[in-house]
Amino acid sequence: MVLGVRLYSALYPSWGPVCLLLRSFASCSGNPASCCTMPQLGLLHGRAWAVLFGQLRRPPGAVCIGAVHSHSQGTRDLSPQQMVVREKIIDMVVSCFKRHGAKGLDTPAFELKEMLTEKYGEDSGLIYDLKDQGGELLSLRYDLTVPFARYLAMNKVKKMKRYHVGNVWRRESPTIVQGRYREFCQCDFDIAGQFDPMIPDAECLKIMCEILSGLQLGDFLIKVNDRRILDGIFAVCGVPESKFHAICSSVDKLDKMSWKDVRHEMVAKKGLAAEMADRIGDYVQCHGGVSLVEQMFQDPRLSQNKQALEGLGDLKLLFEYLTLFGIAEKISFDLSLARGLDYYTGVIYEAVLLHTPAHAEEEPLNVGSVAAGGRYDGLVGMFDPKGHKVPCVGLSIGVERIFSIVEQRMKTFGENIRTTETQVFVATPQKNFLQERLKLIAELWDAGIKAELMYKNNPKLLTQLHYCENMGIPLVVIIGEQELKEGVIKLRSVASREEVAITRENLVAEIQKRLSES
After folding, report:
1. Phi and psi at residue 164, to the nearest 5°
2. Which residues are listed as membrane-spanning (predicted)?
């Protein structure tokens, strides 16, 4: 056995520790129990022996491969087909942001932990903390809003309209089918600065409507409320101010739980008196349009609260602007909307897809909200040493949830997705034409044409043409001995299979003409 182990050690040097163990085992007459001490390896229990021998029985190449069997929970890989769809979604969202005058911004993936704490209410427990690195306590960003506020305060920026596309991380239980992940992409648009009431807020809602309509996801509704109205409701219902945030986070669950369950949480878990919870229930189960705003103005209790009146006044003005934008019918004043994040101070909103799919063949997919946002006038001041505030309002588009819907639609209709943008393939029917193909493709690349060739010296023409059909490449340029002699190139349409001879000097112009017409 010792000789066999030495041979294995010579063949696979990286297995040195395992082979060292086996030599020790062999010298113990094959009885691991008799090997009480091994200075190089220490004492090993029976299970450790079993693992090591199990590894040795596998082929050498399989040792590491078997260990990497999946990505971490709540994350995923995106195939080339999925990347095409995802990029189209993001491109459309960003083009809308730019149409409204936003400029791009990026911030680090992680922040100082102290910058993120006490900004997210009960959700603060979902923040990913990083191990201490050289004395700094760091956390992965939970959203793109808090880093934006930190950027404004740090750079003393008083006005800015920005968009930001980036990944965020949350330690929540992932629900892959609903587009909920621990790592996911957000597309944010925010307006920072002191402006007249509700004009920026109305634009944010207009942007949400434009994006959701443009993506053709089906019918949708945007719920709107105001944190001042909620706080006013809590106050007139007798809730102590110290419990406002806790009760607000319970109300925020009404889109996932029944009022009965939310009431039970308020009373049994958060210590609210039952009669107070019942009074809250009379309000938060109401929803409607601008007529509900007027109704709340007349409410005998709510009309006595200054905060609530301010919120109702802003919502009335907001509905006037939304009517002018032509989107009022897409907006619902919903008193159950709470948005659990602590930094919201005024108008809040959330877009949900209605259960009717865009096409009759589709199954309805419940993904929750697909966009959300609101006003956060105090967040920047939390980062400023002197507490200077910069009023802000913004929105976030849930790319992963939207992608889940689009992905389901692709499966339903069996849509084919091109994974490359190649416009021309450079081919040859003859051997020893690699140099000519390389010269020709360089001309196309230099002219800005997206082109490919096969990485073989002597590829078969049929193989090259099949590749073009499979990849959806529209044009093929063919060069051979006859073409070289006559100073022409054959230009072939993959769809029609028609070929024409084009002079070399006119080839680029002809290709560009055909591409512009397609």
Report:
1. -150, 130
2. none
Could you tell me which residues come within 8 angstroms of residue 469 by beta carbon, excluding any fewer than 6 positions away?
494
Strand-pair category, 183-192 with 392-398? antiparallel
Sequence letter at residue 474: P
For 245, phi then psi, to 5°, come to -65, -40
Whether the model clears a pTM of 0.85, i.e. scores above it, the answer is no
Q: Minimal CA–CA distance to 226: which of 371, 335, 328, 325?
A: 335
CA torsion sign for 202, 206, 212, 213 is positive
| Sign, Cα dihedral of 375, 378, 380, 383 | negative
Q: How many CB atoms lie within 10 A of CB 25?
A: 22
Ordered alpha helix ranges (H), 155-268: 199-214, 227-236, 244-251, 259-264
The total of other beta-carbon atoms located within 10 Å of residue 304's CB is 12
CA distances to 147, 205, 429, 476 from 464, rounded to whole Å, are: 50, 50, 9, 9
How far CA 46 is from CA of 26, 55, 206, in Å, comes to 16, 14, 67
